[in-house]
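HUMAN: You are asked to prepare a plain-text protein record giving the amino acid sequence and the backbone structure tokens, both parts labelled.

ASSISTANT:
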Amino acid sequence: MIRLVHEILAACRPYLARTTAVAVIVGTILCAINQLDMLLAGRATALTWLKVVLTYLVPFVVSNYGVLAATRSRADPVGTARPDIT
């Protein structure tokens, strides 16, 4: 498990600025669509704030997973290597 985390961080590190920007842009759009009314009305509960955090976290994880998958596919152009996230 530690090896997997190290591999993911090493592969994604050069792209963190880009994947963070993607997470901020996509997360803000999704947050506005899904939670903005509750936030502006002042009725945000702890659950609402958890949803806001997850709204930003999901695009960040997906972007970094995409970088990892693309990095591995470039290292193995035949397609035998598959991302193993277990």
In short: The chain is about 75% helix and 0% strand. The mean pLDDT is 84. The chain has one domain: 2-73. Residues 2-73 form one domain.
